[in-house]
Amino acid sequence: MGGDSSSFPLVAPNAHGAGSGSTFNMKKYWGNLSPWYSVPSADYGLPDASPLIPDGCTITQLHLLYRHGARYPTSDAAPAVFAEKIANATKKGFEVSHDLKFLADWTYKLGAELLTPFGRSQEFLLGLEHRQLYGDLLNNFTEQGTIPVFRTESQDRMVKTATNFAAGFFGVPEYMDEVNIEILVEAPNVNNSGAPYYVCPNAEDESKGYIGSTVAAIFAKDAFNATLARLNSQISGLEFDANDAISMLQLCSYETVALGYSSFCGLFSEEDFLNYEYYYDLEFYYNNGPGSPVSAAQGKGYLQEYVARFTHEYPEPYSALNETFDNSSTYFPLNQSIYADATHEVVVLDVLTAFNLSALFKGPPLSLAQNERRSAFSSSKVVPFATHFTTQVLECPAYQSTKQIRFMVNDAVLPINESYPGCEPNPHGLCSFDNVVSVLLKRIEEIDFNYDCHANYTAKAGVDYNGRAPRE
């Protein structure tokens, strides 16, 4: 579980203007580009809850949904575009001074798409941690004479994510004989709960699926003015704008998780990093959180799969489920004591929205106004590199309903009583298994995948849709 040691061996300098005694940890303000860190349950109102099994309970089943580890940026992402801009300016001749001196001989050294070495280590350690915490559940497979099926997608970084997790969980080379890693094709028009956007047209519609990207870009236009003025005074032959500020902040994040250190980090103040985090908060809240009209529909497939594993009954469409794989005991076993599925951060957040885990999003919809940041939803806490959503099914004899369930995100136990009718407040985040399944079955019925993903409707930022499309 750990703390900041989880980001070893990454180094980040102090933010610009911060003293040597500053305790500000900029790596916790990089949104989905943050390295994973352990989140205390107190952040969500359960100060006495621990991710360890509560006293008097034993675990019977573990469900894990996790994101790939740190990766290089995509080939057409902002850092590569910025690098080309610098390369072109270098050819024409430009001068830099003070904080920007390093740019005189800086070159772009990042790969594209694949896991970084640190990202591979994140998943290996995630597997190792889960073996230590839940290894006893493997006895169920031994008794059945079977081995687990763990799932992932077909992108290289996704395959390597599942492989590194399995290597940490089972050991090397043992994992090759002790787990079946099922690789689901991630491609346009192919049903896959781990890549639902490919069969949800509205998810690719800028006015529906990318509301957050639009409002985040608007927010960024004036968020870094003071820093841009300082940096532009230190360079001639080139002028930086708000897009460049985001690019350089992303280079700070990507270079750190790829190379271990980035000179770009020291260009920005603590206030800049708070704005950088909020830029991502806006993007994810309105693209894949409750402010999105398509997020619950995209998360519905996984929600159905979870409930199928709870109830031992195969799920029924309509959603992004792949019927070929989700109606077979070979590809989709219903009797495992451990499940581990790898996916992308956008899908993890879609799933959390589909589960209606409202403790993650407390308060009104995120403000779009400058200088009105609110921190109830934090993208770095919820969707960092190697994020994981954990569900524990427990037997607790001290409770009237002995079978209990609880949900955790990055070690933080979530209270569910506010959004799950019939669940009483509990200091450990526990609720009756049967009650939770009943609530989730109603949620499945409530989410209309066909309408949310295909209908023509109007959506806007500033609204909490609970992940559902508005009805007009």
From TrEMBL:
InterPro entries: Acid_Pase_AS, His_Pase_clade-2, His_PPase_superfam, Histidine_acid_Pase_euk. SUPFAM superfamilies: Phosphoglycerate mutase-like (SSF53254). It comes from the Eukaryota. The keyword Endoplasmic reticulum does not apply. PROSITE patterns: HIS_ACID_PHOSPHAT_1. CDD domains: HP_HAP_like (cd07061). Its EC number is 3.1.3.8. Keywords: Glycoprotein, Hydrolase. It holds the Pfam family His_Phos_2. It is an enzyme of class 3 (hydrolase). Belongs to the histidine acid phosphatase family. PANTHER family: MULTIPLE INOSITOL POLYPHOSPHATE PHOSPHATASE-RELATED, PHOSPHATASE, PUTATIVE-RELATED. This is 3-phytase.
